């Protein structure tokens, strides 16, 4: 009750994107993600960017909790709602991610095989075996995939992102690789979901990948009120790198 009163008080005093950010940070991450997914599915058209960002980046435990909260808050199954609004290979990969049952850890004996299978499914053949991409990228752990992508580059001479871009299109392509550009709402969702998980690692990765600190990037891209809040969060909690962190 106290939390609800505080959120109501904040909403009465704030406005715009800053209000959305503060209220989001006051909301449990699973509840926030569930609400964002419901909004993405029940609005005018489907906001695939939201589906992709949340389902591709959350841990298995987070996904399972989101499913529970979604059913409790909105009275339906998230998988059913997603299947009603999506189709094809894109839908298949979303459903796999939605199960929250990705393999854990790294299987040393499987790394080279996965890399070869991905190459054979894409660059190494005429046409694309999307099922193979879906199976490997949907079921392996983030740690395992990083090792697979390193092996893939040694094998093919190119990054996995290049293969994905060349072999897939549309929402499936977007789900398989990180989305580029500045998106206030995506940044907000990532700050909420990762603020107590792995923000330090993400900030370091952002600096390594882009050659600039997140603090500086926020200053350049966002409005003053959001800059102040996110910059503080960046230094105390750290920040974000990419929507799909397995493709780094």
TrEMBL record:
GO terms for biological process: negative regulation of coagulation. InterPro entries: Annexin (IPR001464), Annexin_repeat (IPR018502), Annexin_repeat_CS (IPR018252), Annexin_sf (IPR037104), ANX5 (IPR002392). One of its GO terms (cellular component) is vesicle membrane. The keyword Transcription regulation does not apply. It holds the Pfam family Annexin. A pair of annexin repeats may form one binding site for calcium and phospholipid. Belongs to the annexin family. This is Annexin. The lineage of its organism: Eukaryota, Metazoa, Chordata, Craniata, Vertebrata.
